Amino acid sequence: MMKNRSFLPLMEILLTIAVFAIASVICLQGFTKANDISKRRSELDAAVLLAQDTCEVLKYSRGDMDLAAELTEGKVTDGGMVIYRDVNGVRFTVKVTSDVSNGGIGKANVTVSTSARDVYELNVAWQR
């Protein structure tokens, strides 16, 4: 009578499946983390461009918030300006806060944020 040896190949197959399952879980976690990093980087890049564009408009308008708001389709607020932009499906709020000027130099702070957090901040100065 022959012995039944089908148990050993079955264990090898189960062990191979377990190893591949663990490896696939680790790979999926890595891909998810990389995707999150990529989204945050894209968000930061868009925020930097918005802040730089706003700073250039402020320099061009020499700190005239009414002119800057007209050029950027923003709204003038007490002591500053607010601009809303949608970039790649993300809603950004650009807040411009005027600083007290010293003589012929005007200054402002530009903060770009999403609904969740502040993404980027930049200070700008211009000659009046």
Explain what the structure shows:
There is one protein chain. The protein is α+β, with helices and mostly antiparallel strands and 128 residues long. The chain has one domain (7-127). Helix content is 48%, strand content 34%. The chain is built from two helices and five strands; from the N terminus they run ααβββββ. It has a five-stranded antiparallel sheet, covered by helices on one side. β4 (105-113) and β5 form a beta hairpin. α1 packs across α2 (65-72). The protein starts with 6 loop residues before the first helix and ends with a strand. The mean pLDDT is 90.
Number of helices: 2
> Major sheet, described briefly?
5 strands, antiparallel
Report, as a whole number of angstroms, the end-to-end distance.
103 Å
User: Percentage of helical residues?
Assistant: 40-55%
* Main sheet: strand order: 1-2-3-4-5
Beta-strand level of the residues, as a percent range?
25-35%
Low-pLDDT windows of residues: none
Describe the global form: rod-shaped
The string of secondary-structure elements, in order, is HHEEEEE
Number of domains: 1
Secondary structure tally: strands: 5
* Rounded Rg: 28 Å
Mean pLDDT: 90
Q: Which structural class do the helices and strands define?
A: alpha+beta
